[in-house]
Amino acid sequence: MLVRSLLFSLLFLLCSMSMAQDRSTHKQWPKDGYVPNEETAIKIALAVWEPIYGAGNIARQAPYTAELKDGVWIVQGTLPKNVAGGTAVAAISKKDGTILQVFHGK
Questions:
Q1: How far is residue 103's CA from residue 2's CA, in Å, rounded to a whole number?
Q2: How far apart are the C-alpha atoms of 31 and 13, rounded to whole Å?
Q3: What span, in angstroms and rounded, lies between the C-alpha atoms of 37 and 86?
Q4: Per-residue pLDDT tens for 38-97?
Q5: What is the pLDDT of residue 16?
Q6: Quick one: DSSP state of residue 73?
Q7: Measured between alpha carbons, how far is 52 from 83 in angstroms, rounded to an integer?
Q8: Domain residue spans in the chain?
Q9: Is the confidence at residue 21, as pLDDT, over 60?
Q10: Torsions phi, psi of 38, nearest 5?
Q11: Which position among 7, 48, 66, 102 has the lowest Cβ density within 10 Å, counted as fewest Cβ atoms?
Q12: DSSP state of 81
């Protein structure tokens, strides 16, 4: 019984030490960031917009554009000419893919 408790304690200690290691040394950023291009930014924006605004609504806003400004992709839909309203907009970090802002224009 004592041996089993000691083994369990040792195993717990080893697992705890392993989990406590500084993981920041293992993080490697891709040279061009996790969102390297317009195509990737649009795919991420679609994945975020569709559950919020509905897939049908978002599909009607195609084609989508993405512009890189100061390391942030600004992705938005397009309205047909002579149609009132707004489109979905997403701001996405090029470096790590963080969704910085999502809204729908009016």
A1: 60
A2: 37
A3: 24
A4: 999 999 999 999 999 999 999 999 999 999 999 999 999 999 888 888 999 999 999 999
A5: 59
A6: E
A7: 22
A8: 31-104
A9: no
A10: -60, -45
A11: 7
A12: T
pLDDT of residue 84: 83
The set of residues, in sequence order, having a beta carbon less than 8 Å from that of 78 and lying 6+ positions away, is 61, 62, 63, 64, 65, 87
Residue positions counted in the chain? 106
Residue 68, phi then psi, degrees to nearest 5: -90, 120
Does residue 35 surpass a pLDDT of 70?
Answer: yes
For 7, 39, 40, 88, the CA distances from 92, given in Å and listed in that order, are 48, 12, 10, 13
The rounded distance, in Å, linking the Cα atoms of 5 and 1 is 6
Q: CA 102 to CA 104: how far, in whole Å?
A: 7
* Phi/psi at 89 (5° precision): -135, 140
- Taking 60 as the threshold, does the pLDDT of residue 12 lie above it? no
